[in-house]
Design goal:
There is one protein chain. Helices cover about 55% and strands about 10% of the residues. It has 48 helices and 26 strands. A hairpin with a 4-residue loop joins strand 14 and strand 15.
C-alpha cells in the first residue's frame, strides 16, 4: 500500500511513515533469524533424532521395569508394612506420571520430525499394574486405619457423652471394602495380598455385631453401668462425675465381652426401645411448635370465636393414640413420668377443645336470642344465666386471643373448668328455652310447623305483630298474609282481631286468627251453598273460591245420591250418573277455554272430583242399590254433608292433562315432537312438579328448550295466554355432586352452614319477584339417595326443607322439572307426586337429525346434491342398522340415532373443501365451490361410504367386521341380502364414486381410505412411511412400527379432534387404545395450539377428584368462563372411562359430572358458581364392560363417536415384529446372511405358538397366571434381539442353529408349559425346517443320545448375560448361550457370595 502511495506521489502522515520504516527493519530481522533457524535444524536434526530414539527406548525400559517391580518384593509380600508400601507406591505413581508427560513430549517431537508416532503401549500396562497394586495396598491400609479407629477411639464423646460410633457409616464402609476385596479377588484369585486384605475384613466382621450393639445411640449411662456389671469391668467415672473415663471397643474385648453377647444385645435392644419412645415423645412436642388456635372477630359482638380446628384435632387424635400406646409399652418405665405428664396435657387439650366447640356452637345460637329485650322479659331466669355465660365466654376468648398457642391453652386448666361450667349453664338454658317454646306450641299447635329459630324471631319482637307475616304460610296453608291496620288491628277475617289485647302473648291472638279463618270459611261455604242452588253450575264454579267449589260440589253430590238411595226408585242412580257425566263434560269444556290462573287451578281439581263422583255413581247404579242407604258400597265412599265441614278438600291430588294449541310450535320438525312439546306445556300448566322420561335422542332436552323459547317469544310479541311468560332455566345434575354439596352441610369445625348448589338456585328462583316463569331442572338419575328430600317440594306443601331446618317456599311461578332416562330407581312416593311426560327415541327416529343436518350444509351444495345425499342415507343406513342389531356383536352398546349422528359427523369432518376459509374480511370462498357437480357427488359419496364403515361398522369385534364387510360390499353392488329388502328402497341410488377394491378377498372395506385428491380408494398401508429410520441404540420399548391399525385409528382420532367431535375408543387390553391417543396428543398435535389433559379413572375415582383435575388445568378467561390459555384448545383424555364404581342405585358421579359438561358446556364449581368452559373437548378410552369395568349410562355415551378396536390381525402382527427383527439384524454388524434369513420363519413360528398358547393354555385355579396377550409375543422377539452378533459362532450354519435355539429358549421363557415341547416339535418342523429333537440334541445327557426330547431336558437350556465376567458394569454384559453347567453353577455360587458380602454383617465370599 505504501509502495502504491509512493508511485502516485502521495504522502502519508509522518507517524505512519515512521511505523512503516520500523516494520521494514523488523521484517528484515525476522527473515534473517528464520534463515539461521533452518540452518540450525539442518545441522542438528540427525543428532536430535538419534537422541529422541534413545530416550524413547530408555523410557520404555523404565516402564517395563516399573511394571515388573509391581509383581515382586514387598508389593506382593502379604507381611509387608502397608504404610511403607503405600508410601513407596505413591512415589512410584508420581514417577509414572512424570513418564506419562515424557511420553507426550516425545510424541510431540516425533510429530515435529515427521516420524511414526509411538503408542507407548508399555505406559498403559504400567499404569494399570501400578494403579491396581496401589489400590489394593491403599485399600488395605485405609481399612486397617479405619478399623483401628473404630476399635481404639473412645466410644463416648468426651464433651457430649453421646456414642461417637456411627454404625451406618461403619457398615457402609465395611461393605464397600468387602466389595472391593471381592472384586480384587476375582481379578487376582491367587494374590496373597488380596488374601490378607480379606482376612483383615473378616477379622473385623467377627466383632462387627459387637460394634453394632455398642454403637447404639440409645445407650445411656444406666445401660453402660449394666453392661460393665455384666462383663465385670471396673470403668472409673470421669473428672466431673457425670460419666465414665474414656473406654473403647478393644478395651472391652479384654473383658471377654463377646462371651456375654446375648446379654449385651438384650440391653441394647431395651435401650433402642426406650430411645424410640423418647424420640417419639420429643417429636410430639416438636409437632406443637407454632401450632395455634385460629381466633377471629365474630360479627359485631365485640368478642371472638375459634376458627377451623381441623389441624389441631388431627394432631390431637394422632398424639393421644400414640401416647396411650407408649403408656402400654413395657419399655416406658424410664420415661413414665414424662409420658404421663404429656398424656395428661393432651387429654386436657382434647377436653378443652371439645367443651370449647360445644360452648361456641351453643353460644353462637343463643347470643342473638338473648340480645332481645322481649326474650329476656319472658325468660328472666335463663336470661340471667346467659349473662353469666356470656361474660365467661368473653373472658375465655380474650385470653385465647392474647395467647393462642395450643400448648399454652392446654396447660390452662382454669379455662377447662370455665368452659365446663359454661356448658352446664347452657344446657340448663336450652332446656328452659325448649320448655318455653313447648308451652307456646301447646298454646298454639300450629307453631309446630315452625322451627325454633323462626319461633324465636316472632317471640323476640312481640310488640310488632307484623313480624309473624313472613311465617304465616307455614302456619296457615290457606292464608297468604294478614291485613294489619295502622293501629296493628287485624281485619279481613270474619271478626276483627286486636293483638294488643294479648299483652305480648303472640299465641293468643294467633289462636283468634285460626278461629277467624274457620269462621270465614264456614261463612263463605254457607253463602256458596245458597248460590249453588240459584246459579248455573258452570258460572258458579268460576265465581267461588276453590275450597268452596270442591266442598259444595261434594256436598250436593252426596245429597243427590243419598236422596236416590232413600227414595228407592230403580234407575234413579243412573239419572244421577248421567247428570254427573254432563257436569264433567261441561267442566272439561271450560278447561279448554281461556281461564285465570286461579280458575284453572280450581277446575283442575274439580275435574278429578267430578270424575271420581261419576265413576262411583255409575258403579252404584250397576249394583242397583236404590232403597239401601246403608249399603256398604255407599258407606265405603268419601261423602260430604253440610253438617260436617271438617273434611279438607286440599287433600285431593289434582291430576289431568290439558290440550291447547300453541301457535309457535308449528315450527317443529315432526308431529311426534310437536305433540310431546304440547304435552309438556300442558303438564307444566297443571303440575308444579313433573318428569320428562326417555332414553337418549328421545327429545327431552330439546322439548324443554323449544318450549322455553316459544313461551318467551310469545310473551315478547304480546300474545296473551296461560304461562305465556319469559322463562328462566337453572339446570343441575344432582348426581354430579355429593349430597352435602347438593343441599348444603355444616362445616365440621365451625358448625357454620354452607349452602348447596340446589339450595342456592332454589332460593334464588323462589325469591325472584318477577313474573318470569322459573324452571328448576334436575337433569340426572333419580334415586332414593337424594330424591326423598324433594317430596315436600313435590307435594302440596311446595317447600324445600334443608338439613339446617331452613324451609324455602316454592314460589307460584316456579316449576320443578326432572329430566331422567328411566324410573328404575325412583320410589313410588316420588313418582306419585310428579306429572309424567314419556318420550321414546324410536318415535322420533334419525330422520329429523338428517333433515336438520342437511339444512345447515354449506351453500355450495345445491338442492340436487342435498337430495342425492338424503337418498344415500335412506338407501344404506336403515338396512345397515338392522344388520348390526341382528348379525353383529357390539363391544360397547350404542343407539341407532347415535350411530346416524356419527355418520353425519364423520361426513362433516371430510367436507372441509365445501366450507369457506378464514374469518371476517379475510374469508375466502370454499375451495370445493368451483368443483363440477360430478366431482362433488364423488366426494360426497366417498365421504358417506367411509363414514358408514367407521360408524355403523366400527362398533363391533373382528368377527363382526368380517360379516359387515360382506354385507356392505353386497349392498354397494346392488345385491340386497334376504330379510333386508323391506329396509331398502326399491330404487338404489346410482353411485358415481369408484367401488371399494375387492383384492380377491384379501382385504376388507376397513383396509381402505377415501382419498379426496384422487377421488379413489387407497389402502391405509399406502399412507404409511415404510422406511424405519431408528438410531441403532433405540430401546425395544421405544420402537413404534406404523401399521394400518395405527394409521386408521390415528387418522380418525385426528379428524375428531380437529373438528371438535368427542371420540370414544373401546377395545380389549393390548389393542393400543391408550397408546394411540397418548402418542397423538403428545406428538401429533401442534404444541403451541393444544393443551392435553390426562385423566385415568379407577374404581375409587369420585366426581370431585375428576373436577379438580380439570379445573386445575384451566385458566380464567373472564367472569364465570374458563379455558386453556388464549389461542389454544384443551383436549381432555379420560382413560379407563368405565372404571368408576357404581353407587347403590347405579349412578356414577364422575360420569354424571362429565355428562353435565357435554350437555351444558360447564359445571358448578365448589363455590356453587357456574363455570362455563370454552375451547375444551373430550376424548376417551375404555375396555369392554366386565371384570371391574361397568356399563356406563347411554345418556353420556350418546355424545361420542364410538370406535371399537378389534384385536390386532395376524398380518399386522407379522408386519410389526418382522419389521423390528429385520431392522435389528440389519442395523447391527456381524449377523451372517443365514441368520438374517431366519427372521420371517421365526416371526411366523412365534405367531403359531402364541395362537396355540392362547387357545390351549387357559387359566385354572392352579395356573391362574395363564393369561396371555400381545405383550408376551413382544417378549419373545425382545429376547431374541438380546443376543449380540459377537456371541455367534463364525460358521454360518452353526450361527443359524444357535439363533434358532435362542428362539426356542425365549418361547419357553415366556410360555413355559409341559405341553410346549410337543407343540414346538410341530412348529420347528413346519417353520424352521428342522426337527426339534436334532436342534436341541445337545441337551440330552451322554449315553441317552437319540431319544425323544422331554420338558425335563429343556431345563438344561440356558441363555443369559450372567456368565460375562469381563464386563466392567452389569449393563454391559453380553447375552449368550450357556453350555457349561459346571461353570454356570460356580458363577451362581459367586453371585450368591457377592450378594452375601454386600449385605450387612455378611458371611463368606
Amino acid at each position: 500500500m505504501y509502495d502504491m502511495l509512493a508511485a502516485y506521489e502521495q504522502k502519508s502522515p509522518t507517524q505512519d511513515q515512521v511505523k512503516h520504516d520500523d516494520l521494514r527493519e523488523v521484517l528484515a530481522v525476522f527473515i534473517q533469524e528464520l534463515s539461521l533457524g533452518k540452518e540450525f535444524i539442518a545441522d542438528h536434526k540427525d543428532n536430535s533424532m538419534d537422541t529422541l530414539k534413545r530416550n524413547v527406548e530408555e523410557l520404555k525400559e523404565e516402564l517395563m521395569a516399573i511394571t515388573s517391580s509391581c509383581s515382586m518384593g514387598d508389593y506382593v509380600d502379604p507381611d509387608a508394612d502397608p504404610e511403607v508400601v503405600v508410601t513407596d507406591m505413591e512415589a512410584m505413581l508420581e514417577r509414572v506420571k512424570e513418564l506419562n508427560k515424557a511420553c507426550e513430549t516425545y510424541q510431540g517431537y516425533q510429530r515435529l520430525f515427521e516420524l511414526d508416532e509411538d503408542d507407548f503401549g508399555q505406559l498403559v500396562q504400567c499404569e494399570k499394574e501400578a494403579n491396581d497394586r496401589y489400590n489394593l495396598w491403599k485399600s488395605m491400609f485405609d481399612f486397617m486405619d479405619r478399623s483401628s479407629a473404630w476399635t481404639e477411639d473412645p466410644i463416648l464423646d468426651p464433651v457430649t457423652g453421646e456414642v461417637s460410633l456411627h454404625i451406618e457409616e461403619i457398615r457402609t464402609e465395611v461393605d464397600d471394602y468387602a466389595a472391593r476385596a471381592y472384586k480384587m479377588g476375582k481379578q487376582n484369585r491367587d494374590d496373597p495380598v488380596v488374601a490378607r486384605f480379606k482376612d483383615c475384613i473378616d477379622d473385623f466382621k467377627q466383632i462387627m455385631p459387637l460394634v453394632e450393639e455398642l454403637a447404639n445411640p440409645a445407650l445411656k449411662l444406666r445401660h453402660w453401668e449394666e453392661i460393665f456389671t455384666l462383663i465385670d469391668a471396673d470403668i472409673p467415672p470421669n473428672d466431673d462425675g457425670t460419666g465414665f473415663a474414656p473406654f473403647f471397643v478393644r478395651m472391652l474385648l479384654q473383658y471377654n465381652i463377646l462371651d456375654k453377647m446375648e446379654q449385651i444385645q438384650t440391653v441394647s435392644s431395651y435401650a433402642s426401645k426406650e430411645y424410640s419412645l423418647e424420640k417419639v415423645l420429643e417429636k410430639m412436642e416438636l409437632d406443637w411448635e407454632g401450632v395455634e388456635f385460629k381466633i377471629a372477630d365474630y360479627k359485631d359482638t365485640g368478642t371472638f370465636i375459634m376458627g377451623g380446628a381441623d389441624e389441631v384435632q388431627a394432631i390431637l387424635d394422632d398424639q393421644i393414640v400414640k401416647t396411650q400406646s407408649m403408656m402400654a409399652s413395657p419399655f416406658i418405665k424410664p420415661l413414665e413420668a414424662k409420658a404421663r405428664r404429656w398424656e395428661t396435657l393432651m387429654t386436657t387439650l382434647q377436653e378443652i377443645l371439645d367443651n370449647w366447640l360445644t360452648c361456641q356452637g351453643t353460644w353462637q345460637y343463643l347470643e342473638p336470642i338473648f340480645s332481645s329485650p322481649d326474650i329476656l322479659k319472658q325468660m328472666p331466669e335463663e336470661g340471667e344465666k346467659f349473662q353469666i355465660v356470656d361474660q365467661a365466654w368473653r373472658d375465655v376468648m380474650e385470653s385465647a386471643n392474647a395467647s393462642p398457642s395450643c400448648l399454652v391453652i392446654a396447660a390452662d386448666k382454669e379455662k377447662l373448668v370455665a368452659l365446663e361450667e359454661n356448658n352446664k349453664l347452657l344446657d340448663e338454658i336450652q332446656k328452659g328455652l325448649a320448655a318455653y317454646l313447648e308451652l307456646k306450641r301447646i298454646a298454639f299447635p300450629r307453631f309446630f310447623f315452625l322451627s325454633n329459630d323462626e319461633m324465636l324471631e316472632i317471640l323476640s319482637e312481640t310488640k310488632d305483630p307484623t313480624r309473624v307475616q313472613p311465617h304465616l304460610k307455614k302456619c296457615f296453608e290457606g292464608i297468604d298474609k294478614l291485613r294489619f291496620e295502622p293501629n296493628a288491628d287485624i281485619t279481613g277475617t270474619f271478626t276483627k282481631i286486636r293483638p294488643a289485647d294479648a299483652n305480648g302473648s303472640v299465641e293468643k291472638w294467633l289462636v283468634q286468627v285460626e278461629m277467624g279463618m274457620v269462621e270465614s270459611i264456614r261463612n263463605v261455604c254457607k253463602e256458596g251453598v245458597v248460590a249453588y242452588v240459584t246459579t248455573d253450575r258452570n258460572q258458579w264454579v268460576l265465581e267461588w273460591p276453590g275450597q268452596v267449589v270442591l266442598v259444595i260440589t261434594a256436598v250436593f253430590w252426596t245429597k243427590q245420591v243419598t236422596e236416590c238411595l232413600e227414595a228407592g226408585l230403580k234407575g234413579a242412580l243412573q239419572v244421577v250418573a248421567d247428570s254427573s257425566t254432563a257436569q264433567l263434560t261441561s267442566v272439561v269444556n271450560l278447561v279448554r277455554g281461556n281461564l285465570t290462573k286461579l280458575n284453572r287451578a280450581t277446575l283442575s281439581a274439580l275435574v278429578v272430583m267430578d270424575v271420581h263422583a261419576r265413576d262411583v255413581t255409575v258403579q252404584l247404579a250397576k249394583e242397583g242399590i236404590e232403597g239401601e242407604p246403608g249399603h256398604f258400597s255407599w258407606l265405603s265412599q268419601l261423602r260430604m254433608y253440610w253438617e260436617d265441614l271438617h273434611e279438607d278438600p286440599e287433600n285431593f291430588t289434582a291430576v289431568g292433562a290439558m290440550r291447547k294449541q300453541c301457535v309457535i310450535m308449528n315450527l317443529q320438525p315432526t308431529e311426534y315432537f310437536f305433540m310431546k312439546t304440547i304435552q309438556l306445556y300442558e303438564m307444566i300448566v297443571v303440575r308444579h312438579g313433573l318428569m320428562t322420561v326417555g332414553q337418549p335422542f328421545s327429545g327431552k332436552t330439546c322439548a324443554l328448550k323449544v318450549l322455553a323459547g316459544a313461551l318467551t317469544d310469545l310473551h315478547d310479541t304480546g300474545v296473551k295466554g296461560t304461562l305465556f311468560n319469559r322463562i328462566q332455566v337453572r339446570s343441575i345434575n344432582p348426581k354430579s355432586v355429593t349430597m352435602g354439596q347438593l343441599y348444603g352441610e355444616n362445616d365440621k369445625a365451625t358448625q357454620e352452614w354452607k349452602d348447596g348448589v340446589l339450595a342456592i338456585n332454589f332460593r334464588s328462583l323462589a325469591s325472584d319477584p318477577s313474573e318470569d316463569r322459573k324452571w328448576m331442572v334436575l337433569d340426572g338419575p333419580v334415586d332414593a339417595i337424594w330424591i326423598e328430600n324433594m317430596n315436600t317440594v313435590l307435594d302440596d306443601n311446595k317447600k324445600l326443607c334443608l338439613p339446617n331446618s331452613e324451609i324455602i317456599q316454592m314460589s307460584p311461578t316456579m316449576s320443578m322439572i326432572f329430566e331422567v332416562g328411566d324410573l328404575a330407581a325412583a320410589s313410588p312416593a316420588t313418582v306419585s307426586r310428579c306429572g309424567m311426560v314419556y318420550l321414546e327415541p324410536h318415535q322420533l327416529g334419525w330422520k329429523p337429525l338428517l333433515t336438520s343436518w342437511i339444512n345447515i350444509l354449506p351453500s355450495c351444495l345445491n338442492p340436487r346434491l342435498r337430495e342425492h345425499l338424503e337418498k344415500l342415507f335412506d338407501w344404506l343406513l336403515p338396512a345397515s342398522l338392522r344388520f348390526l342389531r341382528k348379525e353383529m356383536k357390539e363391544i360397547s352398546p350404542t343407539e341407532d340415532i347415535s350411530l346416524a349422528q356419527s355418520v353425519m359427523r364423520l361426513m362433516t369432518s371430510q367436507m372441509d373443501d365445501f366450507y369457506p376459509v378464514g374469518e371476517g374480511e379475510e374469508v375466502k370462498p370454499a375451495p370445493g365451490a368451483s368443483m363440477d357437480e360430478t366431482s362433488k357427488i364423488q366426494l360426497l359419496e366417498g365421504a358417506f361410504l367411509f363414514a358408514m364403515i367407521w360408524s355403523v361398522g366400527a362398533t363391533t369385534d373382528g368377527e363382526g367386521r368380517t360379516k359387515f364387510d360382506e354385507f356392505f360390499r353386497n349392498m354397494c353392488m346392488g345385491v340386497v341380502p334376504d330379510f333386508y329388502k323391506i329396509w331398502v328402497p326399491e330404487k338404489k341410488p346410482n353411485l358415481v364414486v369408484q367401488p371399494i377394491p375387492y383384492d380377491d378377498g384379501k382385504s376388507t372395506v376397513y383396509d381402505y381410505k377415501f382419498d379426496q385428491v384422487s377421488m379413489d380408494w387407497v389402502t391405509w398401508t399406502s399412507t404409511i412411511d415404510v422406511k424405519l429410520d431408528l438410531p441403532v441404540d433405540t430401546q425395544f420399548s421405544e420402537i413404534i412400527i406404523p401399521t394400518k391399525d395405527s394409521a386408521r385409528y390415528t387418522y380418525l382420532l385426528d379428524l375428531a379432534l380437529t373438528h371438535n367431535q368427542p371420540l370414544l375408543m373401546v377395545g380389549p387390553t393390548g389393542t393400543g387404545k391408550s397408546v394411540y391417543i397418548n402418542r397423538h396428543l403428545a406428538d401429533g398435535l401442534p404444541k403451541e395450539k393444544w393443551t392435553p389433559i390426562f385423566i385415568t379413572m379407577s374404581a375409587r375415582t369420585t366426581g370431585n377428584m375428576t373436577q379438580e383435575q380439570v379445573d386445575g388445568r384451566l385458566d380464567k378467561r373472564r367472569k364465570g368462563v374458563f379455558g386453556p390459555p388464549m389461542g389454544r384448545r384443551a383436549v381432555i383424555f379420560v382413560d379407563d372411562l368405565n372404571m368408576p364404581s357404581k353407587e347403590t342405585y347405579g349412578a356414577q358421579p364422575p360420569i354424571e359430572l362429565l355428562r353435565q359438561f357435554m350437555d351444558f358446556q360447564g359445571w358448578y364449581g365448589r363455590d356453587n358458581v357456574w363455570r362455563s368452559m370454552v375451547d375444551v373437548q373430550f376424548v376417551a378410552a375404555m375396555g369392554p364392560p366386565g371384570g371391574g369395568r361397568t356399563f356406563i349410562t347411554n345418556r353420556y355415551v350418546r355424545h361420542f363417536n364410538t370406535l371399537a378396536l378389534s384385536n390386532v390381525s395376524e398380518d399386522t402382527l407379522v408386519g410389526i415384529f418382522s419389521t423390528i427383527l429385520d431392522w435389528h439384524l440389519a442395523s447391527r454388524p456381524g449377523f451372517p446372511q443365514t441368520v438374517k434369513a431366519t427372521s420371517p420363519s421365526l416371526i411366523a413360528a412365534t405367531l403359531d405358538v402364541y395362537k396355540q398358547s392362547m387357545a390351549k393354555l387357559l387359566p385354572t385355579p392352579t395356573k391362574s397366571h395363564y393369561v396371555f396377550n400381545l405383550r408376551d409375543f413382544a417378549r419373545v422377539v425382545q429376547g431374541v434381539m438380546m443376543l449380540p452378533s459377537t456371541e455367534l459362532p463364525s460358521a454360518p450354519e452353526e450361527a443359524t442353529a444357535l439363533f434358532k435355539r435362542l428362539w426356542v429358549h425365549e418361547v419357553f421363557r415366556v410360555f413355559y408349559d409341559q405341553w410346549l415341547v410337543d407343540q414346538l416339535k410341530e412348529t420347528c418342523l413346519r417353520y424352521l425346517s428342522l426337527p426339534f429333537d436334532s436342534l436341541m440334541a445337545h441337551l440330552v445327557p451322554e449315553g441317552e443320545e437319540g431319544r425323544t426330547m422331554t420338558h425335563t431336558d429343556m431345563r438344561r437350556c440356558f441363555f443369559g448375560d450372567y456368565m460375562d465376567e469381563a464386563a466392567e458394569e452389569p449393563h454391559m454384559r453380553k447375552y449368550s448361550e450357556v453350555t457349561d453347567v459346571e461353570k454356570l453353577l460356580a458363577a451362581m455360587e459367586d453371585y450368591r457370595g457377592d450378594g452375601n458380602s454386600s449385605s450387612s454383617g455378611g458371611g463368606g465370599y
